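User: Second chain of the day. Same drill as before.
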Amino acid sequence: QLQLVESGGGLVQAGGSLRLSCALSGRTFSRYAMGWFRQAPGKEREFVAGISRSGDSTYYVDSVKGRFTISRDNAKNTVYLQMNSLKPEDTAVYYCAADLGPGTKASHYDYWGQGTQVTVSS
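Assistant: Same format as last time:
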């Protein structure tokens, strides 16, 4: 059974940085494209970043381009989201997701982690 476990969330001041990690177990990690999503209170779950199975292709929502970087280490079965220059509007629960193919819609992904809270204070 595929499981995803996120870590690395927390409280940070505006302008600060955090790195989120998501470890996949129960399946061959390199077979899955990975995505990061976020959901703020009262809002829909939003795509943040995605990465192909090999890591050669990455894509981002416009609001995080130049600030966030998604990467993966297939030897460690882990995907990362490096978040720099954080803003209060980045505050949300962040989720990682896995699917056999890449996508930007939440409905595309079959597997989800439990989420990790990121809070950015002004």
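The chain is about 0% helix and 50% strand.

User: Great, on to the next one.
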